[in-house]
Sequence to fold (164 residues):
Amino acid sequence: MELFCPACGLKSFRTVSEKAYMCGVCGFEFFHNVAAAVSVLLEYNGRGLMTLRAADPGQGMLDLPGGFIDYGETAEDALRREVREELALELDTLEYIGSFPNEYNYRGILYHTLDIIFRARLNSAPETVMDKNEISGVEWVDLKNIPFERIAFKSVASVFRNLQ
Ligand SMILES: [Zn+2]
Fold:
């Protein structure tokens, strides 16, 4: 499939590998690289906090708090920023769980992400949702009885399988 080149405007832009595009006329290259994202499993009293997604992909399904990492940001800083924005929580000690590949279909474009996952233990069970554009609510799930069929992403499902 040939697309219009963003540099020269001719219909000469095509895929040259699974993540690279190149213009056959002007030589412009674009790499659709893996995007880095970060999430956290917040635990309190044997339960984990999950968010209900307010928008697609996965509208109405369960996710973990987190988001995409900005340029120049560490995974830890991105996570603390996202959790502050989404839940008005300040995270203390973070424990690394692992990294999990995911696919994120946003407005017709399939983004391949690498989701970096931490866990943190809380001293109380917050319910506040700050960012209503992204999150329509929170749900505390029993960590021994995970509702896999309601989880939006394979990366998040893998996190829970990894813990069991
Ligand atoms: Zn071109």
In short: Residues 75-87 form the longest helix (13 residues).
